[in-house]
Amino acid sequence: MTKLGDVVERIRSKNAGPFWITVDIFCGDLEVFNLVRNTVTIPLVLQLTKVPIEALKRFELEDLMVVKFSFHRQEIQGSRGDRDMHGAQIANLFLELNIKVLV
User: Pseudo-torsion of CA 65, 69, 70, 72, nearest 10°?
Assistant: First the structure.
């Protein structure tokens, strides 16, 4: 097992409005893009983020070699229960995600 953060170029999370967070996984090359495309699956992200399936969207941008996930925030941005105002901390969960890398 390898950590996703050790394989990809960069992972960034951010607000996508007050109700959504977006995670961008920048792969750097086609081989890594295909690895991420095949291993960072919707069920894996659902388990990681604890959001319902209808609240998750996945995008594959092959020209940019980016896999992107958008999902509903558990708390509205800026509300009393919001612990991550800018949506930046969720990227750390993705960085530490264990994935299988076939040699």
Answer: -170
pTM over 0.85: yes
Distance CA 102, CA 54 (A): 31
DSSP conformational letter for 54: G
State how far the alpha carbon of 37 is from the alpha carbons of 15, 41, 66, 81, in Å.
Answer: 22, 7, 9, 33
- What is the side-by-side order of every strand in the sheet holding 10-15? 10-15, 20-26, 66-72, 56-61
> What stretches of 1-103 show up as alpha helix (H) in DSSP?
4-7, 30-39, 42-49, 90-95
| Sequence-ordered list of residues with C-beta below 8 angstroms from that of 82, at least 6 positions apart, any chain | 73, 75, 76
Mean pLDDT of the chain: 93
48-89, pLDDT tens digit by residue? 999 999 999 999 999 999 999 999 998 888 888 888 888 899
CA atoms of 64 and 62, how far apart (whole Å): 5
